[in-house]
Amino acid sequence: MSANGESSASATSSSEPSTMPALPSCGNCGKLETSTDADEQEAKLLKPCIMCKSVSYCSRDCKKADTKKHKKVCAKAAQEYAQIHEIKMASRAPPKADAHQKGLQKWQFDT
Predict the structure, then answer these.
(1) Cβ neighbours for 57, distance < 8 A, ≥ 6 positions apart
(2) Which segments carry the region annotation Disordered (predicted)?
(3) Which of 97, 28, 13, 102 is nearest to 58 (CA)?
């Protein structure tokens, strides 16, 4: 026991963070994703939002029910991503000077 009357085991366990990872939950109803270590047929995996992947849903019904609320959050996340990450279009290398001539030669040879 410590000086304030608490046992040392309870004092250290409350100050340590939990090492168990939190299971994802449905963004609408809050159902937890079941472990994939269990029977494969009974495992319920949540499907993430296709656009932002910041929220997951247990069923199509839950996704539809949460659409109005999540639509605003999803759009905001997409805007923030676009502002943070500079989106660049992929550029092609400029054509070689003799590419047209080589193309014609190949065409003439093939025909």
Answers:
(1) 26, 27, 28, 46, 47, 49, 63, 66
(2) 1-22, 90-111
(3) 28
Predicted model pTM = 0.48
- Choose among 105, 16, 12, 68: nearest CA to 2: 12
Three-class DSSP category at 56: strand
Alpha-carbon gap, residue 30 to 21, rounded angstroms: 16
The pLDDT tens digits of the residues spanning 41-67 come to 555 789 988 878 788 999 999 999 999
- Which tokens is 29 given? 């109803």
Closest CA to 45 of 64, 55, 29, 58: 58
